Amino acid sequence: MTHPAPRVLCYSHDTFGLGHLRRSLNLAAALVRAIDDLSIMLVTGSAVAHRFPLPPRVDYVKLPAVRKTADEQYASRCLSIPDDNVRDLRANLIEQVVRDFRPHILLADHAPAGMRGELRPTLAWLRENLPECRTIV
């Protein structure tokens, strides 16, 4: 019996700073160096993710960008849509990526539930449908 190649999904809600993105990329680079057949998907809201070189076997999905307006308050950086709609759009995209990528590990950087809870539906889906996936905050 062959085992599927391991997959890790790294999530970071990112607004504009580069710290979370850099940390995720450094972690991804170290992991793919250590594990030959590992694939990593970064899910980020960083508006500048495309400017960084990706390690081998690492790709990313860019969420609609947001900017922080107050404590736990975010608004769309580019789209003219209400705050709740951008949160729902991002939450739906995250969940769909997880459903299709089917990670063995989901690593959430910084905010365990994501921006305004956007990661919660995905975490619930994982518990129900992919319980073998380990989550790390």
Quick summary:
The chain has 137 residues and is of the alpha/beta class.
Any overview of this molecule?
- The protein has a five-stranded parallel sheet, with helices on both faces. A two-stranded antiparallel sheet has the order 4-5.
- The N and C termini lie far apart (32 Å).
- The mean pLDDT is 88.
- It has three helices and seven strands.
- The chain is α/β, with parallel strands linked by helices.
- The chain has helices at 19-34, 83-101, 120-129; strands spanning 7-12, 39-44, 58-62, 66-70, 73-76, 105-108, 134-136.
List keywords for this structure.
137 residues, alpha/beta, five-stranded parallel beta sheet, two-stranded antiparallel sheet, 7 strands, globular
Quote the beta fraction: 15-25%
| Main β-sheet description | 5 strands, parallel
What's the overall geometry? globular
Please work out how many helical segments DSSP would assign: 3
Q: Structural class of the secondary structure composition?
A: alpha/beta
Q: Which stretches are low in confidence, meaning pLDDT under 50 for 5 or more residues running?
A: none
